[in-house]
Structure formats: C-alpha cells, structure tokens
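hey can u check if this looks right to u? its 274 residues, i copy pasted from the old doc so theres a chance i mangled smth
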Amino acid sequence: MSIITHILGSLEARLSQPWFNPLRTAYFNFRTLPFRQAVKFPVYIYGKVRFFMLNGKVRFENTTIKRGMVKIGVNGDSFSLFDHTGYIQLGSRDSEIIFEGPCRIALNAKIRVTGGSLRFGEYARIGTDTKVICNGGKISIGAFSGITFGCTIMNSSFHYTYDMQRQGYCNRTSTIELGKRNWIGNQTTILGKTKTKDDTIVGTGSLLNKDYSEYPQEYQLLGGRPAKIVRGGIKRVFSPKTEMRVNSLFKDNNEPFVASSEFFDDPTSIIIEM
C-alpha cells in the first residue's frame, strides 16, 4: 500500500506542474533576443504565460547562455491555484529585462516593464502570484535572492503629484535595489526608493519604502508597515543539507531555540532547485 501511495503522490505532484510550452518558448526567445542567442533557447516558458506588447528586449550579462537557464511559469512553491498562467509585458522599445544567470519565475507571476530596466541576479527566484512592475527607472534583484508568493515590487506610483509647500512636481518613478541573498516574506510590498543590504530577511506582510542600507546592522531582519529594523545578526539558512541537520536538532525538541556554535551554509546549493 505504501508503494502505491508513493506512486500516486508522485503522479499527482507531476500533474500539478505546468507543462513545458514549446510554441510560446520559441515565440518569446525569437521575439526578444538576437537570433544567435534565440536559437539556444535560454528561456523556457511553461503553462499559459501570456505575452503583451513584447516591444522591448531581453539581455544576458556576465553569464554563459545555456538552454533553459531561465524558467518562466513553473510551479516553484505550490502556493497557487494551478491555473498555470502568468503575464509578461515589455511595453516599449526602451524596456528591458536583464538576466545575470539562471532564474526561476513561478506561475501566475506578473512581470511588467514599461520604459525601464528590470535586472535579475543569478539564481534569483520569483514566487507565485507575485507582481514586479517597473515603470521607468530601474529595479534590481540580487543574486540568490528569493521573492516569495504574493509579493508586489513596484517602483512607480504611475501619477505625478505637486508639492504645494516646495512648489514643484514630484517624480512618480524611482529605483529599487535589493541586495544579494535577500529573503522576502510573502505578501510583502516593496516600493520605490527601497534599498536593502546583502543577506536581508523581510518578514511577512511588510512594506519597504526607503534605504535600509544606511543602517549599520548587518544581516538585517526587517518587519512592519512601514518596515523597521527588528534586529541584526539573523541569517537565512539556504542549504538543504544544513536544513536536514537543523531538523534533527528540533525533531524531539519543541523549544524555539537550540544553541549551536557551528554554522555552515552555502547559498549556491539552491542551484539544484532551479
């Protein structure tokens, strides 16, 4: 019975995954990349990801182009309704998406770039139902950073305002810069002028809207609306092997903390999940 249960469970998990879509894969690569790069098919499209006005370009920088190194529309975290959709827009000729290496964008994610630059560091990951909206200006997501499900990253208010006191117009667009190895909790909103340090953790449902790199603490834990520094010295565990070791520490222990002077973690170990 256990073997049958295992087989059925594996089959169910397999069927929940969006299928590789060869037609949309071919269209996206040849529509957005130079021919010599497009024939290598570095971008794989899964499911029913929709394209709207692919007038801009996709670029690869500081990396070797390989087949399927970027996957868009995959079921990365199993927190979606499995309708296998998504949305990509490059709304004008000066719109671009830059990949610095492998990248995974989950199903139901919405990527909209209109007259700006969206940069993904190597092994960056975007969770299901997350929106990344770059309306002019620049958004950069650091290497090995993970944006979990249901987040919004948006660098523009889409409307200009007039400051009555200073007597002038306020720019509707600004820059977002997320450091390397950031871990962004679900339902977080990240607005223009946000800048984070490397190895930052952001708690669920937070609102980021300023430069947090100015603060002296390293390994920052941010939380709140708007977000504040909760404390420093908190580091995300990336390695599955390390997680297994930690699981053994808590297996028969319900305490919230277990002391250990040893810490080893390798963020590059997440590449096996890409």
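The first helix runs from residue 2 to 15.
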